[in-house]
Design the sequence.
């Protein structure tokens, strides 16, 4: 039996297009990333106000190490600045931070800041902000399958329980900005029955109004899960 999709609980976003946003303005790529962080700030606040239980943001993929060192270190710097500037607001708003991906590959100072932010918000019971850092879905699935195998039971359920996303509501809607229509190794397992939305907007231009439009679009969809 099909069911009306209605309200999304868990939305994930592939935040793409920072570089093209900067290029269009003849600005350095790092400026695109900086404006991208501002978009994140607006969106996290809006997602909380819109009643989402979880917002998952793809911030750095296992493939993004292929970028020039200067760009990678600019991204690390922005991540640190974001945590330092916004952590108290998350804490005050009962937001819980969660990381998916193996962020321990990041520089020590970044790892320490992340660990501090996780501890600071661990007891919060409001919305969960999930940030994907050094995340690759194939890596995640391989790690989860190995853990399930080590415990002696390899089933869909046992693998799902070992994924980095364990404990989060099922993924309802996956959005990618910037006009690219691919998943780039993001939430492959979790997206099995998620709704997808690809928009042309470049990430720094993505506003709470775009998110609201995406949720309205989602609410009209009919999810069938293979039934009829
Ligand atoms: C997304 O913007 C941000 C990250 C991948 C960190 P891009 O940097 O990929 O921007 P484009 O795709 O080159 O425009
Ligand atoms: C996906 O964007 C990763 C993030 C948004 C963090 P990319 O810009 O890295 O993806 P490709 O290379 O276009 O597939
Ligand atoms: Mg890109």
Sequence:
């Amino acid at each position: 039996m099909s069911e009306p999709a209605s309200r999304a609980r868990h939305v994930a976003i592939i935040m793409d297009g920072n570089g093209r946003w900067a290029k269009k303005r003849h600005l350095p790529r790092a400026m695109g990333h900086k404006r991208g962080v501002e978009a994140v700030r607006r969106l996290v606040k809006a997602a909380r106000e819109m009643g989402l239980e979880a917002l998952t943001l793809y911030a750095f993929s296992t493939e993004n190490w292929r970028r020039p060192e200067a760009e990678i270190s600019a991204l690390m710097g922005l991540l640190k600045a974001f945590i330092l500037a916004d952590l108290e607001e998350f804490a005050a708003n009962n937001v819980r931070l969660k990381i998916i991906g193996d962020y321990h590959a990041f520089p020590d100072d970044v790892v320490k800041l992340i660990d501090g932010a996780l501890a600071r918000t661990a007891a919060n019971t409001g919305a969960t902000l999930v940030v994907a850092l050094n995340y690759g879905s194939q890596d995640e699935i391989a790690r989860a399958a190995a853990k399930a195998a080590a415990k002696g039971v390899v089933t869909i359920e046992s693998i799902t329980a070992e994924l980095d996303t364990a404990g989060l509501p099922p993924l309802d809607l996956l959005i990618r900005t910037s006009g690219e229509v691919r998943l780039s190794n993001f939430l492959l397992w979790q997206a099995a029955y998620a709704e997808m939305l690809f928009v042309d907007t470049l990430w720094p231009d993505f506003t709470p109004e775009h998110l609201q439009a995406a949720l309205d679009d989602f609410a009209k969809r009919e999810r069938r899960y293979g039934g009829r």
Notes: The chain has one domain: 3-223. The chain has a mean pLDDT of 96.
